[in-house]
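Hello everyone,

My group is preparing for a crystallization screen and wants a predicted model to guide construct design. The compound we'll soak is calcium ion. Before spending weeks at the bench, it would help to have a computed complex in hand. I've included the protein sequence and the ligand's SMILES below. Output in structure-token form would be ideal because that's what our pipeline reads.
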Amino acid sequence: MLTRRRTLLGALTMSAATAAATLLSAGPAAAEYKGYGGIIELCPRGDFCVSDDYNGYSGNVWGWYGSDRDWWLNDGGASGPNNRDNSWYNHGNADYYDHVIVYKYGNGGSGAPSTPTICLPRDDFVNGLNEPGAAHQGSAHIWTHTC
Ligand SMILES: [Ca+2]
Ligand SMILES: [Ca+2]
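Reply:
Good plan to model first. Here are the tokens for the complex, ready for your pipeline.
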């Protein structure tokens, strides 16, 4: 009986670890083109979104559920978001990472992106007027615990 209980506990621990690993790598790396319009309206809960419009009211909007190290790879739709980000919206999920960091330089391989341009806590929207230095720079983003 004791052995059986241990086995069950082991199975539960294993599945919790598997679930955590799945959560950390959740989401496809590719951006989804959300359409043309307001970033707040088009960006679904769970996503980090960018718009090529400096105030986020009208423009092309792309969103990702997970992290993406290469905004130029597999991110189709209106030529993709690479270096076209002009406003940003972290509409992430409470059971995932809180913050998202955008990087000037991505990495199509396994290496880390470099040179952060902007970091947003969950539910934060920033437009290009307020962060002109970050505009048209983004090539990657990574979800993270803190800025
Ligand atoms: Ca990509
Ligand atoms: Ca860039």
